[in-house]
Amino acid sequence: MAAPMDKVAEHHKQKQICASRPAYRQGRRDRAVKVYTVNQESRYLLVQGVPAIGVSEDLVKRFALYGAVQEYRILHEYPAEEFTQAYWVKFDRLQAARVAKRKLDEYSFFGGVLHVSYAPEFETVQDTREKLGERRLLIANKTRGNDRVKQQPTPSQQERRKPQASTSTSTSILQTEPSHGTNSSYQETFPPVPSEVETFHALPAPPQHQWYHPAQHHSQWDVPKVASKQGVYPLGYDARLSVQPPNTDQSNTRNRTPTDNQAEDSRPLIGPQLPSKDQSGGSNEGATGQAVIRPDLVPRQVLAGRKRPAPPGFFGEALEEEKDSKGEDEEDNDLQKTSCPDTGSSSMNRTAIFVRQKMRQISQTRTMSSGGRSSRSGSSSSSSGSSKSTTRRRI
Amino acid sequence: MFSSQEYLEKKTGPSGVGRLQYLQSLVTEFQDTDKEDCKEQVLANLANFAYDPINYEHLRKLNVIDMFLDSLTEENERLVEFGIGGLCNLALDKQNKEHILANGGVDLVIQCLSSRNEETVLNAITTLMFLTTPASKPAITRVSVVECMLRFQLSKNSRLSNLATVFLEDYCSKQQVEEARQAQAGEAVGITLPSAPQET
């Protein structure tokens, strides 16, 4: 959408600086006498006086300091001084264009002085509409704040009317009817400010919302809210507010299979991808791989050293007659109650356990000299193969 | 875009002239001076102050809105231009709007539509848009105004035609536009150029 370029528009021309201002109102910079309204301003800028020495990129970079530049062109047919060019720059936002114009007008650039002016003639109808709408919103936002703060000078009636109008103008950008019909509904939702408050204009309004208190909504699996909506927890970070202590019932712990443990611990966890944990039920480490202090957990090594009656099935061959009834549990009991370190493979574990049991029996037969024991040992040796098979009933 | 109170205080410093006082001295100069260019300068200065809502309270207190309205009837075209510019900047605030409407601002602004100055006309169209309320809408969208906008829409000046299009599309009902078109078609005189529109 190009404006006719044969005649330079008036607002592109640089006006004469006013020299006759009295000192008290002479600003820091010399300026012409000019009024800027929303109509004069635009996202589109015209930059004249750019030296024609191939500085496009530098120029655009300079402008882009103040905001995103959507587009730019060199206007070859625009009447320009010798050795200078005129550029057409389109900003993403009006505010950026305003700042750029203020800062870069009369700016010395590669030996030439830039003359930056707005170019609203390049706007489309929609651009103009949006520009006016933005101005409306800005004023509505600004004046809404003013009305609430300044309660003293204005009577309470006007207070109520002003916020209504400004909120309604902010919501309806183009419909310029600050619908007076909504008066009553607004008053219903926001009760009028009592007259006593007028004397304390500095006090903020009482809170009307129940803000989120992290301490209150606290379930075990509640994830604390991240400050930003786009926030992501780093990998491996445990965001749980509290970690569920393990089930202190010993038998339950031991009866669980490793797969059960993993499933139960990882299922309700709403959090980042956790490193896979070691599959031993009595592990001291928590589900995260980080050391989590669980006072109820005691290392297996300590347990094994305690003087306790051996749990059933600990000595596989010694309690052979009970194997049938406890076949299911035995396997797990063997794996989890023995003091041998976990090698990571169940078959290796079983082998290690069997070997250790064997060693214990041998040491027992040596210490004992009774026939019962020897018969047992005999039976043990003969039944070693069968015990091996029975203890390994569950494959 | 706008100044905040802290920024103003920082800029003036502890012994500087405050904003209200400065505006007061501007208004005083405007009333006391005889020189035309001083009046123009002061009026333009005030109109630019009217851009920032932080000044609205001060401007209301100093009756600057009335000053702008009065300047619309001046002979000096620049005074009219700056006055309508100031009104355009002010008109979106609710209180200012009420004040302008209460003091017959609509008619004064509509008169500006027939100015020869491009900026005056553009600011006048925008001011009419900003002044639209359910109460003022019938006056603002009367047939003569809509006719005028239809003419502006055909102008080669894209700023003018854009604003006229926005006015017709967003602030007038289709019925009103139709009425105006028919009224225009019935006129003996052809479509006049916007540079010298003669409003009835």
TrEMBL record, chain A:
Keyword set includes RNA-binding: yes
GO molecular function: RNA binding
Residues of the RRM domain: 43-121
Residue ranges with Acidic residues bias: 318-333
Stated name of the protein: RNA-binding protein 48
Stretches for region Disordered: 139-192, 239-395
Function of the protein: As a component of the minor spliceosome, involved in the splicing of U12-type introns in pre-mRNAs.
Automatic annotation (TrEMBL), chain B:
Pfam families per record: Arm
PANTHER family in UniProt: ARMADILLO REPEAT-CONTAINING PROTEIN 7
Record-given protein name: Armadillo repeat-containing protein 7-like
ARM repeat segments: 63-105
Signal peptide: none
InterPro entries: ARM-like, ARM-type_fold, Armadillo, ARMC7
Organism: Branchiostoma floridae (Florida lancelet)
